[in-house]
């Protein structure tokens, strides 16, 4: 009997293994909720979306599609409501074993009301880690290296990094709020030859601290746009030095996709495509990606009205299309990466996909 049980256990472990890394970029209307399923079968969720349960429901659909029922790791990039707001609802519905964050509530203007009142009781059910640059999140089957956390940046160059960054000479610092975003826990995720980076909402001025005078990261294959494609982040000093082949933007209809951000992306050396979770009103006709690269599109009549009357303001003074909205169904973008560096991006709205071969030098 013991021999039979052993064979059954080995079979279960083998079935959980694969030769690919899967990533689901879940639509949370301009926040973040990114699910990784490593080749070992372990799971890592970066951020939990907004409070209220909507984004947890959307994550559960992605988990169902991926065939997973628990989260081995939850990484909170920072404590703003569009990144950490869904934690309470999520913890009540899904087993979570490990929690990683940037540490104490350093600079948060109550973006998630009462978060620090209940967060310790949630992570007490698992294991809690305060991340420092250089730490590795020990998920089996892929390498997850912390490169920013608590406003600090990694000092030791990664393999392929360490060369002078020519974009530093043109960098211009800004007068920007020094808010919770600068604490973002950023990671470089590697599976074989495939590399991707997620810096949360890491701020413009702090990008210089990370990338200058030398670029410690080197190049990546896939870049998740910092700060949802808002122009508070995503300088050429960061983006062009990373030399991504593909960018994925976790934007909302009125959040992200700004002309400055899109211009920086499309002028980045070697960039092939930008994929968007939403059609972005700020980008208008000039800067949005072709429709088959966009997971969630707006009502054509609303888009037409906006394009004809972009300055219309409803009562209250807000932009006519400023509300975050509740798109239903909400479509995700899925990435499947292989150890040889190749990866496929899929738009779940129309099943359009494109495969890329790693071109990193």
Give an account of the 3D structure:
The protein is an alpha/beta fold. It has a single domain (18-356), classed as Ribonuclease Z/Hydroxyacylglutathione hydrolase-like (Metallo-beta-lactamase, Chain A, 4-Layer Sandwich). 23% of the residues lie in helices and 24% in strands. The protein contains ten helices and 20 strands. It has helices at residues 2-16, 54-66, 81-84, 87-91, 115-123, 204-211, 236-242, 259-266, 284-287, 300-308, and strands at residues 20-25, 34-37, 43-46, 71-75, 96-101, 127-130, 136-137, 143-149, 152-153, 163-164, 186-191, 194-198, 214-215, 222-224, 246-249, 273-278, 294-296, 333-338, 343-347, 352-356. The strands form three sheets. The chain has a nine-stranded mixed β-sheet, with helices on one face. Strands 7, 8, 9, 11, 12, 14, 15, 16 and 17 form a nine-stranded mixed β-sheet that branches. It has a two-stranded antiparallel ribbon with strand order 10-13. A hairpin with a 5-residue loop joins strand 7 and strand 8 (143-149).
Mean pLDDT: 89
**CATH H-tier superfamily:** Ribonuclease Z/Hydroxyacylglutathione hydrolase-like
Reading the helices and strands in chain order gives HEEEHEHHEHEEEEEEEHEEHEHEHEHEEE
Radius of gyration: 20 Å
Got a strand count?
20
Specify the CATH class. Answer: Alpha Beta
* Number of spatially distinct domains: 1
Residue share in helices? 10-25%
**Helix count, per DSSP?**
10
The assigned structural class equals alpha/beta
| CATH topology value | Metallo-beta-lactamase, Chain A
Strand order, sheet with most strands = 6-5-4-3-2-1-18-19-20
List the uncertain runs.
1-15, 313-324
The N- to C-terminal Cα distance equals 53 Å
Query: How large is the share of residues in beta strands?
Result: 15-25%
The appropriate CATH architecture is 4-Layer Sandwich
